[in-house]
Amino acid sequence: QVQLVESGGGLAQAGDSLRLSCAASGRTFHSYSMVGWFRQAPGKEREFVAAIKWSGAILYAISYYADSVKGRFTISRDNAKNMVYLQMNSLKPEDTAVYYCAAAKDYSGSRYYTRGVYDYWGQGTQVTVSS
What is the C-alpha separation between 113 and 119, in angstroms, rounded? Predict the structure, then answer.
């Protein structure tokens, strides 16, 4: 059974940095085609944050970001550790949300920002940024 587990959330002040981690069990990230991060603030819809998509050979990867986080967040993958990370710098209060990791088994399209293309989801980790 595939399971995604996020970690690294917590309390931060505006301008601080946090790094979120997404670990996969039951299946390595080599078996996926794309991993994304989404977030959901209280009373709001779950929104796309970042995604990383790679080819079958995992020699080529491309990253995508929401405009709201571009230049501040970086998504990356560590094949040896079977982890995907979201480095969040220059945090703002509006980044406060529950952050979710999601993985797509076999997706090569361009709708990386759409929740429906992801097959597996983690339980989320809370990030709270104070001003």
Answer: 13
